[in-house]
Amino acid sequence: MTFGFLLLLFVFQSLDAKSTKPWKKNASQPKKIRQTIVLSIDGFPAYYVSDPKYHSYFPHLSEIFQKYGVSEIATVNPSVTYPAHTSMVTGKDPAEHGIFNNTLSDPFEKNDGGWMWYTEDIVSPTLWDLARENRKTTANVFWPVTVGANIDWNLPQYWRKKIPEDDKLLRVLSTKNLHKEAELAVGAPLNDVSKDEVKLKTATWLFQNKKPDLMFVYTTDLDTNHHGFGPGSEKALSRLLELDKAIFDFLQSVGAFSPKGPGLVIVSDHGFHSADVVCAPNVVLKQKGYIRDEEGSFHLTFKSSGGTAILLPGANAKFTDSEIQSLVSEILLACPGAEWVSATSVLLGEEIKQTSEDEENCCLQKKIHPSALGLLRTSQSMFFSGTRKGEVFTKSQTKIHGHGYWNANPEMKTIGFVYDPTGKKHRFQSVKDVFGIAKDMLGLKEKKNKGPRVSTKP
């Protein structure tokens, strides 16, 4: 057993390691948790925790993780922000909860780049629904897919032009008067260009003044810097160091780890990977007439998530297996390193070892998208583009930093941390486990329902 393996095992699994730093274990553990906070750090790869060279860039979090334990967890497919965050609050896969991607399948940009901001598109019960049923209060700072959510104090994520005019719209979409009240208290408005320090200070004010039983907090700056400069880059790591301090201040402000402090979940939605070649499968579909730009119609289209691209049919379009396989074979020939997963998980292209995650995702229509005909994925440094212009396969002039890769790819692994003041241990293997952990910590009871709503989205 190597030293490196022992170190990783210590970081990810040690729950009772001793520490000489300020964090102290409770002398007497409470029998009941009064409040719980779920904090998401978008785009935190698990390899930052497993590789000690990164620990100096998040010293406070590293200390907490070493003391109380942290898990390497799986995300969902596609490994992008909105599906993953909705899986956290529903415990379901994207095909079940209805948020299939960050954006709708919209080949001709009729929605003008709009994201899936709206809670009404979620077809499974959420944690805030469950909290309300159990007479618990809820609060939110910028959690994805919360516009219109039945949250007591709601500050949802939304943007259009990312200019000050957006603040007026956010005031309307938030709980009445709350957005302006928070701005006056913190000294800056909460919007999509706000630094995470503003989000966390807003969360501090909200927690201290409204005293919610369950609060969701979402930070974005690490993900933004990873996309812009790459994981492990100087700029991304410098921002992580600043974010670590801001999170430490937030945790202190809400009394985390104190005898009467809140239960705490710290989680991320996906890891990060970099690509230097681009595969554009929609170029093939356009060449063969499946996408008709002049008519604004399509019979087939690939919806890209970066590291994967899902094949979706147009309205009332039907295809034989041989027709699909012929198209896919041409794409695989043009894009070396691409792999095809059919709706029944028959692999074409380069053979790769099947993993437990592959078995977990055995049926694309049950896990990822109910209309999926199949999915392109890769374990290489490849990016799937949704463009219909140019060549099918090209080398990128600059590195493309992103995610959306198959959740079994090690680069997509992310982190999950739980602090339960009662001392109870919780299973944390997937972003979907957030639902059960928060539910258990607050003692929420589920009522029988009539089943999920039916999604009609593309």
TrEMBL record:
Return the InterPro entries for the record.
Alkaline_phosphatase_core_sf, Phosphodiest/P_Trfase
**MF annotations from Gene Ontology:** hydrolase activity
- What Pfam families would the database entry show? Phosphodiest
Which Gene3D superfamilies does the record cross-reference, listed alphabetically?
Alkaline Phosphatase, subunit A (3.40.720.10)
What is the recorded name of this protein?
Answer: Putative AlkP superfamily pyrophosphatase or phosphodiesterase
Please tell me the species this chain comes from: Leptospira meyeri
